Amino acid sequence: MATQEVDLLCIGAGGAAYPAAFRLAKAGHEVLMVDPKGVMSGNCLYEGCVPSKAVRETVALYDDVQRFQSLGLQGHIAVDFAALMQHKDAVQSRRYAQHAEELAATPRIRLCKGVARLLDAHTVAVDSDQGTDTYRAAHILIASGSDVFLPPLPGAELCLTSHDLYKPGPALQSLPDEMVIIGGGYIGLETATFFARLGTRVTLLQKGERILAGMDPAMVDQLLTLLPAGLQIHTDVEVQRVEDQAGRRQVVWRDQGREVSQSVDVVVLAVGRHPVIPEGAESIGIELDHHGIGVGSALQTRYPHIYAAGDVNGRVPLFHAAVRQSLVVAHNILAGNVPTDYADFSQVPTTVFTLPAAAYIGLTPDKAGSGALLEAQYSFKEDARAQILERREGEIRLFFEPDTLRLKGGWIVGLDAGSLIGQIGTALAAGMTAYDLARFADQHPMSAEGVSKAARSLF
Ligand SMILES: Cc1cc2nc3c(=O)[nH]c(=O)nc-3n(C[C@H](O)[C@H](O)[C@H](O)COP(=O)(O)OP(=O)(O)OC[C@H]3O[C@@H](n4cnc5c(N)ncnc54)[C@H](O)[C@@H]3O)c2cc1C
Ligand SMILES: NC(=O)c1ccc[n+]([C@@H]2O[C@H](COP(=O)([O-])OP(=O)(O)OC[C@H]3O[C@@H](n4cnc5c(N)ncnc54)[C@H](O)[C@@H]3O)[C@@H](O)[C@H]2O)c1
């Protein structure tokens, strides 16, 4: 087939791709998204955010009901793990159907099921079941995301990954009694708390000294004291190998020079993700850095018309960061590839959706240095909603510039952390001060009032 012309070709159809695709199509441009999944939403919906949180929220309800056994909700409640997986699958199907409708209703935008390769700075080949098509694109958005990193660990192939756990039709259909999780980052810790709260005995093995390395230690240390009792965490260990033992898994690791082993039903490997670089990118001279495709905050590669957004640039590998970056790309394309919009990588709300959760944004004391920020605190112990829900653990901390009392960052451990961080983020984006927050009459008895109460503690 002859080469076809498009205004924008997106490599991938996840959160880093489709907001730009829709914005450009709305502005009258012809857009093609290419993705081997043949559906929109990338890994967030296929095996990431949405399915993992469908599991998380069900476990949170189970946890709440158990806590209320002596508080007015008596009766036996049991986990049906296979039904929980069906619920997760149903949420995924529902969202896929919604996205298909959105796509069908939007003119000038097509989604092709296939794999894209860069032939030169304007030409992209798309390999699909129908053969290979070639497109000449005025603009290219590389949004090919990330994939599970598999380390050279003997027996890695015996382990499950987040892909196996959360994809539609997941690998696990019954609740394991015992599980080892290798890796103490987001995926490892979230997954560990979900299973531990359901009743699985979970051992988590972390290579370095710190769980959730890179986050404010004061936040992480507080979170660690609140994790489920059925979760054992070993840090500073070196996993040696995983072996098959008549269908069970034997995990062998070194702990302070001593060899330790444990036999479990399931091993989950969660030691990170790596960017997926489309074929041809490097040969046309697109540069990589230690995160992924190298871009500045205008998200342009060395070619002004070729952009890289989302997990593939590895700067802030979160869904909402990918969406914001995608819109930055759209704005810069619409401005004729002259940077007019920039991604702010420093102010992205981040939540570890453990049970309970921890969330942070902006500048925290570990990064700012001791004494550089004025701290305000609010403990959930004294919070009305937390008392009503018997969730009195954790706190809100806000960090201000000492001279101006301008909000610089914050973190929350505990109740509604994943929602409250959005409120703090909005205040941060608006350049608000402790005075502004303290003046706002936030709703009682909701956890959000803790944000203004924390600010008021300074006066
Ligand atoms: C278990 C798990 C839980 C997560 N939970 C959260 C969460 O709660 N909140 C949050 O914000 N983030 C979460 N994330 C991260 C989030 O999923 C990613 O940040 C987000 O999906 C990134 O979007 P993206 O569009 O950059 O990439 P992706 O979603 O990875 O999409 C990239 C797409 O490109 C396609 N592709 C790859 N190569 C090619 C090619 N050559 N041609 C065509 N298409 C190609 C891929 O098939 C994929 O569909 C989670 C991730 C995981 C794994
Ligand atoms: N709530 C969220 O927003 C959310 C949830 C899940 C995933 N994600 C995204 O997915 C990405 C990947 O998550 P992840 O947890 O796989 O990676 P990660 O980089 O967050 O954590 C990996 C952990 O594994 C440890 N590790 C590495 N090699 C090891 C080894 N051999 N033995 C033991 N431990 C080892 C690392 O030190 C680190 O603590 C995250 O960076 C995040 O962007 C986000």
- Strand tally, please? 21
CATH-scheme architecture of the largest domain: 3-Layer(bba) Sandwich
Query: At the fourth CATH level, what is the homologous superfamily of the largest domain?
Result: FAD/NAD(P)-binding domain
What's the mean pLDDT score? 97
Number of helices: 13
The name CATH uses for the topology of the largest domain is FAD/NAD(P)-binding domain
For the terminal residues, how far apart are their CA atoms?
Answer: 71 Å
User: Could you say which structural class the secondary elements and strand pairing correspond to?
Assistant: alpha/beta
Overall 3D shape: globular
Provide the low-confidence segments as ranges. none
Biggest sheet, in brief? 7 strands, mixed
How large is the radius of gyration? 23 Å
List keywords for this structure.
459 residues, alpha/beta, FAD/NAD(P)-binding domain, Enolase-like, domain 1, 3 domains, seven-stranded mixed β-sheet, five-stranded antiparallel β-sheet, 21 strands, 30% helix, binds flavin-adenine dinucleotide, binds nicotinamide-adenine-dinucleotide
Secondary structure elements and their pairing?
Blueprint: E1 4-11, H1 18-26, E2 31-35, H2 42-47, H3 49-67, H4 81-104, E3 109-113, E4 115-118, E5 123-128, E6 131-142, E7 146-148, H5 162-166, E8 178-182, H6 186-198, E9 201-205, H7 217-224, E10 231-234, E11 237-245, E12 248-255, E13 258-264, E14 266-269, E15 273-275, E16 306-308, H8 319-334, E17 350-352, E18 358-362, H9 365-368, E19 374-379, H10 384-388, E20 394-400, E21 407-414, H11 417-429, H12 434-439, H13 449-456
Parallel strand pairs: 1-2, 1-6, 2-3, 6-16, 8-9, 8-14, 9-10
Antiparallel strand pairs: 4-5, 5-6, 7-15, 11-12, 12-13, 17-18, 18-21, 19-20, 20-21
Nicotinamide-adenine-dinucleotide (NAD) binds next to helix 6 and strand 17.
